[in-house]
Amino acid sequence: MPTSTKTTTIKHFINGVETTGEGNSVLHVHNPATGQVTGELRLADEADLNTAVAAAKKAAETWGDISVAKRTNVLFKFRELVAAHVDELAELITAEHGKVLSDAKGEIGRGLEVIEFACGIPTLLKGDYSDQVSTGIDVFSFREPLGVVAGITPFNFPVMVPLWMAPMAIATGNAFILKPSHRVPSAAMLLARLWKDAGLPDGVFQVLHGDREVVSGLLTHPDVDGISFVGSTPVARHITELATKHGKRVQALGGAKNHAIIMPDADLDNAADHLAAAAFGSAGQRCMAISVAIAVGDAADLLVKKVQERALAVKVNNGTEPDADMGPVITPASKERIVKIVTEAEAAGAAMVVDGRDLVVPGHEEGFWVGPTVIDHVKTEMTAYTEEIFGPVLVVVRVQDLDAGIALINANPYGNGTAIFTSSGANARKFQRSVDVGMIGINVPLPVPVAYHSFGGWKASLFGDKHIYGPEGVSFYTRGKVVTSR
Ligand code: NAD
Q: Is 387 close to ligand 1, i.e. is its CB under 6 Å away?
């Protein structure tokens, strides 16, 4: 792997100051399109962790107590600043994640929606009042912040996922510590600067870089009250077990294997357009990517042909190139894993319709490339079906009818998102009522809810009771008080 001499040191953001512990161990950050090392990340040690948690604890006491009006002013200002820095944030995302710039801007747009929702916090925090529940007695209830909360986020949405958490946690009066993915750390630092410029007091939003050690420190620290996690299922399960054991409130969103059913009565051109976008967008590295197409009955042959045409038309290049549709995958190990799973499917008898395993992008030979890949006649025992591939691979499973498709979805351990393509209202309604999945699209491939609904899957895609952002986000970051008053 090539190295570059031009690397930046990525610091922590602790109590309003950018700082780096000199003696701490170091990880390299790469640009996946070029393979070059672009950054040096010093991992937080125990002292950094303790400093950040102490600062958060102190800041939460004041921040949780100031007027809702003052908190709202900061949120409005932060919203303006993020909107004014979309280009800069998108460049940071593309340089470390690899997704194309338009996609990076798209994720910032989804994050902005959550900030806008959080700007309505005065209404969201309104309590309830019951007059004269007994003679001379009233009862009222309201919600208070938890105190110090931490967010641990995945590599695939360096801005959107932190913004699913931080605006909600901060609007509700908490201090928030972000532990971003060590693969994509730089955008989090710009967010920290923007919070500070928006007038947020020091210690209310902090960034600590690191991997499992610093996460373990957050999960077990006595002064951390709540944990929001988004990442893979094994880590989500571990986070939930360890943090709940240490008395913390936890929401942990895990991995996914999202299926789309395509009925013979669907508009197949529309379905193929959306399947290609949902399978290959961001190189398939989205928790809401469609990775399994369930082709029902007669839909299969024509659908596969149409998806093949679209997969072959996808332009793969460095995400900074204006005509790029799709960028690289995140690491060489990820590429190796994806190629292995595809090869196993082929060896087990699946049909390669489009094969992206050997893709090379001229001028970027050292990048981590996998081209769009479509595999037909996949069986449920193949690893291409059982594993979350997290790459630009669409597998096609053929079934006879809608019931068989729904049964397949419900037998899968994940339940994040799913979609149906159909022109029948009866099929759509049966589907929405029958699938054991948290987020459902009807002729919509990536049903990521708008910010005033909440986001969350079922089964192995979410541990904990509360979905993230939206009304459930307000509930997660607060606890209720009920006053009975004579
Ligand atoms: P990951 O689970 O490897 O890492 C997520 C975070 O946890 C990172 O900050 C990482 O540093 C930390 N971490 C990793 N291993 C750890 C350990 N053993 N102990 C403590 N902390 C640890 O996930 P990733 O590869 O960064 O992201 C991809 C995964 O995230 C996919 O499975 C994807 O489906 C999932 N994801 C889910 C959603 C959702 O909303 N459900 C959204 C985005 C991504």
A: no
Pocket of ligand 1 contains residue 464 by CB under 6 Å: no
Task: Show Cβ contacts of residue 129 under 8 Å, excluding neighbours closer than 6 positions.
Answer: 138, 139, 140
Residue 330, token pair as written in the block? 């995140």
Task: Kindly state if the Cβ of 258 falls inside 6 Å of ligand 1.
Answer: no
For residue range 23-49, what is the model confidence (pLDDT) as tens digits?
678 999 999 999 999 999 989 999 999
Interval 82-111: pLDDT, tens: 999 999 999 999 999 999 999 999 999 999
Pocket test for ligand 1, best of 49, 93, 97, 156 (most atoms within 8 A of CB): 156
Instruction: Return residue ranges of the chain for CATH 3.40.309.10.
Output: 258-442
Rg (CA), the chain: 23
Q: By three-state DSSP, how is residue 23 classified? A: coil
The first and second tokens of residue 240, run together, are: 């939930």
Total Cβ atoms within 10 A of residue 3: 11
259: Cβ below 6 Å to ligand 1?
no
**Catalytic residue annotation:** 287
Give the homologous superfamily in CATH for domain 258-442. Answer: Aldehyde Dehydrogenase; Chain A, domain 2 (3.40.309.10)
8-254+461-485: CATH homologous superfamily?
Aldehyde Dehydrogenase; Chain A, domain 1 (3.40.605.10)
Compute the half-sphere exposure of residue 129: CA atoms within 13 Å on the CB side of its CA.
3
Residue 2 has pLDDT above 70, yes or no: no
Q: Which residue has the higher pLDDT, 257 or 211?
A: 257
CA of 233 to the centre of ligand 1 (A): 8
